[in-house]
Amino acid sequence: MSRSLVPRPLVILFVILLALAGLLAFLAGRTTEKPPVTVEKPVALENLAN
Question: Domains of the chain: which residue ranges?
Fold first, then answer.
């Protein structure tokens, strides 16, 4: 039976951390933001020239 250099719990922890990092990178790369909605109404230029 060959003995690995790294203990098994450490390998499992490393794989979980890699999966979490990949998931975070995937979620950060997705465009979840909607385009901003303009609330301002158009103002006539005559109202600004007072």
Answer: 8-48
